[in-house]
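Following the same procedure, sequence and fold were stored together, as reproduced here.

>
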Amino acid sequence: MMLTKQEIVDSLRGGLIVSAQAYPGEPMRDPRTMAQVAASAVRGGAAAVRIQGISDIQATRSAVESPIIGLWKDGSSDVVITPTFQHAHAVALAGAHVIALDGTRRARPDGLSLAQTIARLREETNALVMADCGSLEDARAAAAAGADFIGTTLAGYSGERPPTTGPDLELVREIREADLGPMLVAEGRIHSPADAAATLAAGAEAVVVGTAITHPTTITSWFVDACRDR
């Protein structure tokens, strides 16, 4: 289904985005399974889904009508979330409405700046761009580069901020107070409904939850650990 930019932005505002990803080698590592998980999340009320990998994006595009935030993790350098323009272009061609990419200020493998990458995507695709950031400085740079959405996805992972036990609410507040323009999406270590509500209260306009909804291995381990600690 074709969606306009405004329709996508409006549908995400105040909503829950569910990230459906499985790691290589896991039993659920199959595009059909991820598409089914995504469809189940949409049935439960998710405003959108975040999907990794070309095959998974293609399968999910056939399974849901809600917006798809697509990404492609690849490489062994620091920048692995949709690291190059070619990765981003492929994600758009696979059917993603929004392309999620590394939005940090680190060097990209293809030598293009974030601004150059976004500009080329504007010229060649209709997809919007979500910049996965790790700090306020990243968010400022991503907004200046033309990103449509700013995510706190890499807070605690890019080396600029220490990892927090739960969501990095301080960073959410800092970006909200900076009033940069793009929609602010909280992501990372959001493990409960209370965590999700807290990010919205801190100023996020949408929230991404992955592991706590779509990763049975981790969820099971939480319960196992709780039983052992009893």
